[in-house]
Design a protein that fits this description.
With 497 residues, this protein is an alpha+beta fold. It has two domains: 176 residues, Chloramphenicol Acetyltransferase, CATH 3.30.559; 279 residues, Nonribosomal peptide synthetase, condensation domain (Chloramphenicol Acetyltransferase, 2-Layer Sandwich). It is built from 14 helices and 16 strands. It has a seven-stranded mixed sheet, with helices on both faces. Strands 9-16-15-12-10-11 form a six-stranded mixed sheet. A hairpin with a 2-residue loop joins strand 13 and strand 14. The chain starts with a strand and ends in a 10-residue tail after the last helix.
């Protein structure tokens, strides 16, 4: 029995029929190298063999009576691989739009909390005999980094790696704890909360003063901007209350092109990614005649895994609020403003402390937190005040070498994060073999034309390269380029195919 951390549990409390707190990875593999040939049954058998290597896949939630404390993880005595690994198909010959359509439908459905909180859908019918995988896991189980680590147990570095290694020796306990046990352990945990609350109040007060010093000091230091503030974002058409539905779009750009810009302009890869997002959002908003005169605000998750290694829980993440100056005409001015702003945001984040969010999440009262989240959604309060932020943008680094799933070569993978109340779009990026794959998910009532935004991504990169007097977008990794095009994504100057 393992109790969820406060941050992990918060993702459960936030969830309601319209707000889904799971993450999704949509991948395409080439089964040509599968020993003995591809079949759904063989893929499911391989997945079943690998799951014991990561016990997280076979645990489920047990709620504490009266929600007296955070839920606990227990080994699921009724685990059934047939429930979690499912088969679906798109009309042949399916492309990325068809794959995105089915991924959006899967992303728009909540996970069953009486089961381990994950599903994997194997999608047949794609063009060129490709096979798609749509993997959905609840955010209470993983963050971006740990999710990539968990999925790595399914992948190999060669098409035929040999037998699956034996899982680590562990005690498998099929017993579900009694209500009395759950209440007892939760009461012990709650007894320590007043002491932790006092500690966190003192510590956070000191850190807030440190943040204030950084903000004041940024006015005296050239090249250092400020972090954006929550509730300072201008309202756009994609900032409002959510429905249950989700729509998804994909695109990709070359990582080397981003690195060329980074080196030429003295910024970072993440700065360039945010500038590409800003340029794409500017074009999208201009077409709708709704470009605000103030900067957009993005929530940018930050992994704090290295500095909170001993902290309890699956999620080791904090976040920064970053301004996206979409109102500026010059793309290089936008990039420089983002570079200065992210430097200031990082300094303020460091001053506040990597563990502040983790610590305060421990004080989340389950009933109060969950009821407040449901009331906020039911009353559509996100429509009645300025957005906390406009969107979420996350960038997760991936491997630069080929991976294989059951012998099938991974060609591309598009990550999808959750959309939040008042922030009806999420952009998540993952790099793999020299290509940055962009997954864009939205609530269609807020942003129905999500493919238009996806088409603006490579165009925004071209705009930046041209403004910096650099060569147009090129591929340095030809194998990756061929793989992307074979999978149905044309990463060209004219946008996605």
């Amino acid at each position: 029995m393992e109790r969820l951390s406060g941050l992990d549990a918060s993702f459960l409390y936030l969830e309601n029929p319209n707000l889904h707190m799971h993450v999704v990875m949509t991948s395409v593999v080439d089964p040509a190298t599968v020993p003995g040939g591809y079949s759904f049954a063989r893929m499911k058998e391989l997945i079943a063999e690998r799951l014991p290597l990561a016990p997280v896949f076979q645990r489920r939630l047990v709620e504490v009576p009266l929600r007296w404390g955070h839920p606990v993880w227990v080994d699921d005595p009724d685990f059934d691989i047939d429930y979690h690994v499912r088969l679906a198909a798109v009309p042949k010959p399916g492309g990325l739009r068809e794959l995105a359509s089915i991924a959006g439908d899967i992303a728009g459905r909540q996970l069953d909390r009486s089961k381990p909180l994950w599903e994997m859908w194997i999608i047949e019918g794609l063009a060129n005999d490709r096979v798609g995988f749509v993997t959905k896991m609840h955010h209470s189980t993983v963050d971006g980094v740990s999710g990539a680590e968990l999925l790595s147990i399914l992948f190999d570095l060669e098409p035929d790696p040999g037998p699956t290694p034996p899982p680590p020796v562990r005690v498998h306990d099929d017993r579900i704890p009694s209500n009395l046990e759950l209440l007892g352990t939760a009461t012990v945990d709650r007894a320590m909360l007043p002491f932790k609350l006092t500690r966190d109040l003192v510590r956070t007060g000191t850190r807030v003063l440190n943040v204030r010093k950084v903000r004041i000091g940024s006015e005296e230091r050239p090249g250092l901007g400020k972090a954006a503030l929550p509730l300072s974002a201008p309202r756009t058409s994609f900032n409002g209350s959510l429905s249950r539905r989700r729509t998804v779009a994909f695109t990709a750009i070359g990582l080397d092109d981003v690195k060329r810009l980074k080196s030429a302009m003295g910024t970072t890869v993440n700065d360039v990614v945010l500038a590409v997002c800003t340029g794409a959002l500017r074009s999208f908003l201009l077409r709708g005649d709704e470009l605000p005169t103030k900067p957009l605000v993005a929530v940018v998750p930050v992994s704090v895994r290295t500095t909170t290694a001993n902290a309890r829980g699956s999620n080791k993440v904090s976040s920064m609020f970053v301004q996206l100056p979409s109102q500026l005409d010059d793309p290089l001015e936008r990039l420089e403003a983002i570079h200065q702003g992210t430097k200031g945001a990082k300094e303020e984040h460091n001053a506040l402390g990597a563990d502040t969010l983790l610590n305060w999440a421990e004080h989340a009262t389950p009933n109060l937190f969950a009821n407040a989240a449901r009331l906020y959604s039911r009353m559509q309060l996100a429509d009645r005040h300025r957005p906390i932020a406009n969107l979420v943008i996350s960038n997760v680094p991936g491997p630069d070498f080929p991976l294989y799933l059951g012998g099938a070569e991974l060609e591309c993978g598009f990550p999808l994060g959750p959309v939040m109340e008042g922030m009806g779009v999420n952009i998540t990026i993952m790099s793999y073999r020299g290509i940055m794959y962009w997954g864009i998910i939205s609530c269609p009532e807020n942003m129905p034309k999500v493919w238009d935004l996806a088409a603006d991504i490579p165009l925004a990169l071209d705009e930046l390269l041209k403004a910096a007097n650099l060569e147009p977008a090129v591929y340095r990794n030809k194998d990756a380029a061929i793989a992307v095009q074979a999978a149905g994504v044309g990463v060209t100057k004219s946008g996605p195919g």
